[in-house]
Amino acid sequence: MSDCVLVIGGGPAGIEAARTVADLGLRSVLIEQAQRLGGAPISCNYAALTPRFADAETGIDAMIGELAARPNAEVRTSTTVTAITGEPGAFTVTLSTGEALAGGAVILATGFDHFDPGRERQMYNYYQYPDVVTLQDLEVQLKRGEVCVPSTGKPPERICWVQCVGSRDRNIGNEWCSKVCCGVATKQAIEVRKLVPDSRAYIFYIDMRMYGFWETELYWPAQEQHHVQYIKGIITEVLERGERLLVRGEDTTMGRPLEIPMDMVVLSVGMEPSVGTRRMAALLGVAQNRHGFLDIADVPLDTVTTSRPGVFACGAALGPADLEDTISSAAAAAARAVASLRRGAATLAG
Amino acid sequence: MSDCVLVIGGGPAGIEAARTVADLGLRSVLIEQAQRLGGAPISCNYAALTPRFADAETGIDAMIGELAARPNAEVRTSTTVTAITGEPGAFTVTLSTGEALAGGAVILATGFDHFDPGRERQMYNYYQYPDVVTLQDLEVQLKRGEVCVPSTGKPPERICWVQCVGSRDRNIGNEWCSKVCCGVATKQAIEVRKLVPDSRAYIFYIDMRMYGFWETELYWPAQEQHHVQYIKGIITEVLERGERLLVRGEDTTMGRPLEIPMDMVVLSVGMEPSVGTRRMAALLGVAQNRHGFLDIADVPLDTVTTSRPGVFACGAALGPADLEDTISSAAAAAARAVASLRRGAATLAG
């Protein structure tokens, strides 16, 4: 019976899970394929976190620092998992470095990938027009404390967000709602309006899914204090028209065609199961739902137990998740993993 | 240094937190004011859980059974907390029974109350018309396996749900979105259409907040398989007209007034901080947000640590939460509470 929990994936979910395991008195080893921990908020250069505008790098670095301070928590970066054998209480995981690790339980925290807008069926022309960007492209600018139209280097006079790019779309096979894009786009629109007070900001949406306190912490201030304009409408194409972009679609509230010039268009790309999530699911033999995310059979009363005994999962590997979902489910997965080893040890002792 | 965690509130959050504490090797005492455990799903007679239609009573009873099987988990029902003294590691909680309990940490799982539609500023006439009911009134019927118009006892030919009753409404002071009502109303509409195949079902909404997999598990099947009709519109009043109800408002997509007869109107009432949440926050001196829910300062990277050291919180006491949020944050609160006691014990030992 190993007293170690192996955590695969070093984003916010994996960091939180590994730290929690250590805080509960067992050992954890966190395995991350990238050169450094942090996951999407770091690798994609998030500026401020939704909903309270806390600095992303500061927040994630603090979590990494907390983990590093635990003597019973180890980290392997630039490392992937290549094989797993054994059973609950006694797994052996082989790493790309050749190292073999013993662990009593495994936590999958393999996260999501951003939707590639090159796969979009509408004609948003992300790869054709430099001034069509994604949420994460704009985050990079915001992290530098600026907003500029890529082709001119000037601040945008008119900027819009197109929601549900790669989400809620049967044609491309992504039927789910990605949950966070309404909040993230609204956060960005507020930041842009603060940085470029003369700009006009528009968000084209199907439903604004500003659940819980996002309604009053983000959605109302965006409209009332920052004059972000929300237009319920479907955008079907983005064209070049002179030095500007022309956004075309339908304003569903007004029931009429919509054609509106923009300096910059931000595609609110959704979440997909990451390559690592699919690979680890296959390697470990863990059930996936029909979308490719990891499946939890007993949702909603169990949120972290996978189909394989001794293997738990958390964060956006399970489906679209905001950071609160991610942090809570990570700690929950850690608690379940530790409990499973305590129970196993008690059974052996008995 | 006590090895016991005191959990206040015996709904899904409290049950999960208390069980998790016990599974992590400490003792827990779960304190519930009602005569039995289970919280809203039991006291309000929920039929099937959102989103997968699992039987609510079966699921919650299984959780209660799991808790009861832990020798290091105790339960006090019909009991409230009347005083608390001490500090992290050594709290003393006085109960309404006169008993004094020692605990090293406290978890608040005091949940939510359903919005009272008598406080609504629109004229929905819940207390005037028997055929205007709430989500939880309809759950009682669904749990009996039936749907009937209260005044006639017959199945409804036409039934509608009015979303955002007591939510997203500055006039009544409830500015937040209650997060789950879109999903619960859709779940109920599917159940009604199955039970009464000849009925017509309408949902009047502002935004359908069917986040994540609710989009594809509930929203699409409701429309495509069960022919639930979604109308984006604001309902301003419900009147009696002959033997039927007349629902009046505006269809915002069509941009025209809306007047439609119904046999039965279901008010999708939102979540408010429960009386117990407000009372415990005051008694324990835990910060509340301006809405009255318990405040977590470091959201989103910490989801359970309150303003008072040694006191953690979870579930809908923190704000509108679905059952997945609740179960994950409950386990997270348990993990944090146990970790805080382990850390305290290590400090004393050192």
Largest interface by residue count?
A-B, 66 and 66 residues
Low-pLDDT parts of chain A are none
Largest sheet of chain A: 7 strands, mixed
Q: What's the assembly state of these chains?
A: homodimer
Put simply, the count of helices of chain A is 8
Radius of gyration of chain A: 22 Å
Secondary-structure element order of chain A, N to C: EHEHHEEEEEEEHEHEHEEEEEHEH
- The helix content of chain A, as a percent range, equals 25-40%
Looking at the structure, what is the overall shape of chain A?
elongated
Q: Residue-averaged pLDDT of chain A, rounded?
A: 96
| N-to-C CA distance of chain A | 14 Å
**Structure class of chain A:** alpha/beta
Write the layout of secondary structure elements.
Two copies of one chain form a homodimer.
Chain A: E1 4-8, H1 12-23, E2 27-31, H2 40-43, H3 56-68, E3 73-76, E4 81-87, E5 90-95, E6 100-103, E7 105-108, E8 112-114, E9 132-134, H4 135-143, E10 158-165, H5 181-195, E11 200-205, H6 214-224, E12 229-241, E13 244-251, E14 256-262, E15 264-269, E16 271-273, H7 275-284, E17 311-313, H8 323-349
Parallel strand pairs in A: 1-2, 1-7, 2-3, 7-17, 9-15, 10-11, 10-15, 11-12
Antiparallel strand pairs in A: 4-5, 5-6, 8-16, 12-13, 13-14
